[in-house]
Write a structure and sequence with these properties.
Length: 132
């Protein structure tokens, strides 16, 4: 189960850290640096879909790890529910981009990902809570 533990922590660190780093550190730093707002919007428009797709893949990996440890009980577990929320928010991010005012819904989905990831970080790994 050591490989599952490593996969869980690595995936969680990469996707949650990437989501938070881009939105709350990188883009504001570029704005403060003095780049044109249109350029910052182009960078955000390029990077956000990449990170959301990466987050969905990492959440799927974490879901498989949690499923192997928890089994059917994953549906009642907060970590399983959060990972399902992350995958649904990632799907919504890509689906609402076609709607009028879709940019606002994409930003909402992005922030749902960010805060679901933050709550997920506060939870113990699935292998820490299973009694042996």
């Amino acid at each position: 189960m050591r490989s599952g533990r490593v996969a869980w922590q690595l995936a969680q660190t990469l996707w949650v850290g990437g989501i938070w780093m881009l939105h709350f550190v990188m883009l504001p730093a570029l704005e403060r640096f003095g780049l044109a707002p249109l350029l910052i919007d182009e960078i955000a428009g390029f990077m956000r879909p990449l990170l959301v797709g990466f987050a969905a893949v990492c959440a799927l990996l974490q879901y498989m790890v949690a499923c192997s440890v928890l089994g059917v009980a994953i549906w009642r577990d907060l970590r399983g529910q959060l990972l399902l929320l992350v995958m649904l928010a990632a799907a919504a991010f890509f689906l609402v981009g076609q709607l009028p005012n879709g940019v606002y819904w994409q930003l909402f989905s992005y922030l749902v990902l960010a805060f679901a990831g933050l709550v997920l970080i506060l939870q113990p790994r699935p292998d820490e809570t299973v009694s042996r």
